[in-house]
Task: structure prediction
Amino acid sequence: MNPLRGTLRIARRELRAYLVAPWAYGVAAIFLVLTGTIFFVVADGSREASLRFWFPNLAFVLIVTAPIVTSRLVAEEWRSRHLDILLARPVAPAALVVGKWLAAVGFFVLLLSATVVYPVFLAAWGEPDWPPIVASYLGAVLLVGVFCAVGTMTSAVTPTAVAAGLGAFAVLVVGQLANNVPAFRGLSFQPHLESFARGAPGLEDTVYFASAMIAPLVVASAWQTIRRRGASPLRGGKARAAALPAIVLAATFALNLIPIPATARVDLTSSRRYTLSSDSRKVLSNVKEKAVVTAFAPENSPQARDAEVLLAQFRRVNANIRTRVLDFAKAQGEALRLGAEDDGEVVVEIGDRKEVVAPVIEQTISSALIRLVRRAPQTLCGLEGNGERRLDSEAPQGLQLARITAERNGIVTRGLDLTVTSAIPPDCTLLMMPAPTVALLPNEIQVINDWMANHGKMLILSEPGGPNLDAITTRWGLRFLPGLVFDPPRAVAGDPTALLINAFPTESPVAKDIARVGLVSAGGITTAASEDTGLSVAKVMQSSDESWLEVNPAVTPATYEEDKGDRGGPVVIGGAADRSEARPTGETRLPGDKASIARTRLLAFADADWVSNAYLDSSSNDRLLINSLNWLASEEDLVAIPGLDPDLRRLTLTPADRRLMGIGSIGAIPAAVLLIGAGVWLRRRRR
Result:
């Protein structure tokens, strides 16, 4: 006889029993109240449009509810003597066990389907990354399968539903706590659920869930075989029946306790967070010395396991790299030695050099590695004293986020008051002039020109209507034009001066990996005549063909009038100048290379708002900034690190949104389930 014959019939019967039992709706309401509360607390606290922190907490709710649902599966049938009737029919013990398990899994899948409203909330107020959410739900279904299998097993081997529920609860709690015991961590379901929740499940996770489902079901089926009339009187019958589950249990423990090189992993995140990019692989090919990468995260936390998964990629690509994950609270001495200040930071060491960066993502680690194999750090000095925007300003027009982005990429920043200095300090490797509002004095211009003449590198951000900077820029082939760019086809929210630029006419490292840039009130730039044969000038970005540079923007409505001095599009908004000179001493590309080229570089943008706190984290503005600084430093092959974690999907919630999310997730969904249960109860009473 087919051992699984009748499985679906048993499953349909049991699932129908759940759907007509009022107590099942009470359990469902409790389940949804708990999951809804956890969702609200996690989403409101993190303000992140993802469920990666909610799914690991789902295990807690299932530990409470799964034993209640599964405790009656077999134990109640045994207590009422109905099990003998079932087993007397042409239904094999395996079919009975698997059928009841499928019914319990189906019941919880119906409960999980009610939680899909949570991603709907996230989509309403944010931009969630959908593939990891789908993978998380798959992991949740697998976890339900494991919990229901454990509950079915305890229900099959205990005489009462109470004993079955307590037994299942004890086993699941041990599975939860095993994560904190290194010797038994392989038996815990928590890290495997988190692998699905982070959107990067691996082969070891699939092996765990499959074995953890099969083993309890085999034990439950074998126990029912022993219970069947005629099994025990046979000589050795019980021993033979118990041999298979004993072997399966031993194999399951061995499979999950003994480390297996099951490293295959699917990275479903949109940013490919757990898969090294080709850029990072190129970076690692230049690391010839021994390197140590130390990440700090709370022990056994999802952040720690995320870091372990990521750092394993670096080890596999380059054998010179050693990695470790430490708990900041438990490794104070090592944290002090390395200069780490909190969890969430990563320290990269090569020899006696080190860098502390954050967050723990591929780009920060790769960029730190390549900077450490360079010859010297970079220092960006932001000019002050003439109304420039300050690097330490938190105002919307300030540049605090620009400073954070630069420092995240290993560039030291500080202010430099041009009105009280007679020369640019030697430690300033990069200069930044962020939108001066007052005309520079002749001696200030001379200080800048002298520094630039000695192979300086400078970024100029000029606002329309700002002071004339020709005395600095024209010798390098660039000149700011008066007027304001209007570009209706690329306007934002109907404002023709708020532009989304997606035209980058030159194959420049400055525009690498940039889809579009958001500008506000941009001016124009033109190439000035230059007799310097060693100077090359390039267009970095420009407006569309339908745009124009309006010389009199105060006149409304703004229209293109060539006869009045307007310039037709496309209008150049960003330009780069590069002067290379062969010298006995000059710049070194990598350690060991001979110096041969000395460079002077100037990068000019006819807008400064795109770098401000109000706009840096929109479009690709932060990437454009760091690309610009890397190009000026002649390190354009560095990996550009955005100012924010690329996996951070912000959730924007108003007070009204919070109330709606709380009422919907904690109140409305469980209430709807209770109403359905009340309807089922009334219908049964009328019969």
Observations:
- The chain is about 45% helix and 15% strand.
- The two ends are 39 Å apart (CA to CA).
- Residues 496 and 557 are 11 Å apart (CA to CA).
- The longest strand covers residues 572-587.
